[in-house]
Amino acid sequence: MGLGRNHIAARRVLLNLYIRLRRCRRRTWARSLCLAIPSLLVYLFFGAKLPGLRTFARFVTGGCGAARYGFVRAGNCHPYALPQVRSHISAKPSECGKLSGMEAGYCLCDDNETTTTIAAPKGCGTKPVSCERACAEAPIVGEKPPLCTPRPHKECTDTIGHPNMLKPSRAILTLARAFSASLGADLGVSLPKGSRSNLMQDFVMHGRRMSRADVDVVTRRVNAFKRKAPKYPNPTAGAGAGSGKGPGADAGPRSRTGAGQVAAAGGRGNGESGEGDGSAGGEGSASSLPPPAPATFSGRGIVIVGGKEAKFATSYWVVIHAIRRAGCTLPIQLWFPATEMPDCTRMAELARLEVWVASFADFKGANAGDKMLGATNRFMYKLLALLFSSFEEVLLLDSDNIPLSDPAALFASDLYLSTGSLLWMDFWRSSSAPDCQAILGNATLVPHTHESGQMVVSKSRTWDALALALFMNSHNEVFYPLTVNYMGLGDKEIFAYAFLHLGIPYGLVPHSPDHVGVRDDKAVVMGNTMLQHAPDGAPMFMHTNLGKPTGYVPASKSTYVRRWVVSLLHGEGLVGVINRAAGVDDFEMWYYVLLRNRRCFFDDRPAKHWYLRLAHGPLLEGFHITDHYNVNTELEAFRPLKAQGYVVE
């Protein structure tokens, strides 16, 4: 005999209660207590009118049949996109026996400490599914790797036992103090009302301008800094000292017109020690000259800024392993903010990988100045690490920017040899505010934007531009909003704008970035990574802008969700392009295996969000670039879309 309305209502109340309790993060004993009390009260209230206690208990603890949680909606049109609701498991419909909608997502059948079972992953505009039926008939079981055992990560202070702990030289500390003294106090000006991080509130979109008086204040401060900024130290220790093949080892003034004249003005360094070879002295021989002072900067290397936050802790390890996998032997300096240095065990592993570790805390201890080194955001650290690293020639890499092949080849490119610098383009047209041109000149109004996930410079050849960039970086509360909008608010334009303002040519890689990700039901790319190319067009860097490398991956590659499947420029041929550039059969599998095998060493903290603990993933972040304003559709990455008739203007 069927149950009456009250009994059905009671069952529905208990079922909804159970579903909610299953989603909570309480410990097992607490959840059991929460279930037991209302279950007992309802049973006592209805008495024998309900089915037997055993049947009732089985009903309550069994969830919605085979589908314990129901359908989890994805936030995008890919079935494995991050969930629409991320704070907790929000399964729709929550009632048993109903169909899902046409949205993308999957049925979350069950999840426990060792496995996750899902069913019916689907995209947008697809047939609704019954999760109970799908979970019963075609479950997909994923296995979780063992949990990591979190251990305290006390900063390593053993400078004797870890010789790869790098301390700045006295000359570099002196230089840092000189910069600090030249930066001056806050600019003391006001920007127009509105935030550039929100397009609808962007003061440029509303046509608002700075006051004329404030523009004049900033202009005067820029000009004053240029007059008193520290000059390049040890000018006789030419670029490339210690590298054996660095460009521009001259001590004299630089030509701004190209590689030929630069070489004619220089040619005095021997490329080994940075000392003169005797021909530059004019009078006397090399033996009669006094011994040169040690070079403040020498050699060639890679600089990365790390950190202990979850989005940095795994990323920089992946980047370092990728550099060494590619056969690159350049020394690496890994810089950390104060209190974020790795522990001694990880210091030893970094030493094995030939990575030297530096801390910004060393500069504060030398009274280098809070304005320059009291960084208020992560962007500020990058230029500080570049400028005060011991290298003369630097490849600055973001900690989430993965090289496919040996980046040392960039230093030998004609574009770098002719300019002493390499910068890369971003996806957008110019995003600067008109007041930027009023302060820095019309030369800064260019039709493209720049991406600072990688940059190559010779300090001696670009010193004035780097110094001015440091000034703008230190006064970022004004210069960040003047140079960029919501698609990349940060430091990414100040390097190029310093070059442009000073009239110093820089090497702009002529190939556009590629938008890399997965295909979804919108038939375009849901991108998560920016593929950047070498000057000769070879794929070089995979900048993982969305969805940072994480150790929360499944135990088996069968339920690993690939993130690099298709791109705007290369289409379905992307995977082959990446593999050929990396010289492997499957670069993404190298990436996955590294994360799976070293995850606990890279970052042993437990997952912060429930969806990171699933055995299907990592779930995908991403966006459709053509959904956004100000896309630079003249870039080569958009040609295939335009050829297919897409309106991308």
The N- and C-terminal alpha carbons lie at a distance of 65 Å
Global outline: globular
Mean of pLDDT: 82
Q: Rg to the nearest angstrom? A: 29 Å
Computed structural class: alpha+beta
Biggest sheet architecture: 6 strands, mixed
Write a structural description.
The protein has helices at residues 5-23, 28-46, 53-61, 131-137, 170-183, 212-228, 259-265, 310-313, 315-325, 344-352, 361-365, 370-373, 378-388, 414-419, 434-440, 459-474, 476-483, 494-502, 574-582, 587-602, 639-643, and strands at residues 70-73, 105-111, 115-122, 140-143, 300-305, 332-336, 355-359, 393-397, 401-403, 421-425, 450-458, 514-519, 525-533, 539-543, 566-567. Helix 6 (212-228) packs across helix 15 (434-440), helix 13 packs antiparallel against helix 16 (459-474) and helix 16 (459-474) crosses helix 18. A hairpin with a 3-residue loop joins strand 2 (105-111) and strand 3 (115-122). The protein is globular and about 75 Å long. The protein contains 21 helices and 15 strands.
